[in-house]
Specification:
The chain is α+β, with helices and mostly antiparallel strands and 117 residues long. Helix content is 26%, strand content 50%. It has one domain (3-116): Nuclear Transport Factor 2, Chain: A (Roll), CATH 3.10.450.50.
């Protein structure tokens, strides 16, 4: 597997872990000082990532699925994804939208930063 394939596999696994609210799996893919940025707001470190991974909205469940990858450099990947929010009570789609993210990875393939636009 080349580095582009490894990066894509790590990013897919990260989305899978976050969608499943599997904090341990998400943390295992990242460095201890990982930064997750939502616009100007940032969360840093494994404990913050654990909190993000296990957040629950009582009314909606969210799933983000990567649909496209663009290698910007050996350590940076731009990701196009689809976010679907569903009502927990019925399973019906509440909203559906495209999202963009940029992942930074270290030389070992660990995620160091995720920026959601």
């Amino acid at each position: 597997m080349n580095s582009d394939e490894q990066s894509q596999a790590a990013i897919r696994a990260f989305f899978d872990a976050m969608n499943a609210q599997d904090a341990d799996a998400a943390v295992a893919l990242t460095r201890v000082d990982v930064v997750i940025a939502f616009g100007p707001n940032e969360a840093q470190g494994h404990e913050a990532l654990r909190e993000l991974a296990t957040q629950v909205d009582e009314q909606l469940s969210a799933e983000i699925t990567p649909v496209g990858f663009e290698l910007e450099s050996p350590s940076s990947v731009s990701v196009s994804a689809r976010r679907i929010d569903r009502w927990r009570s019925t399973g019906e789609t509440a909203t559906e939208r495209d999202v963009q993210a940029r992942f930074s990875l270290d030389a070992d393939g660990a995620i160091t930063r995720v920026e959601f636009a």
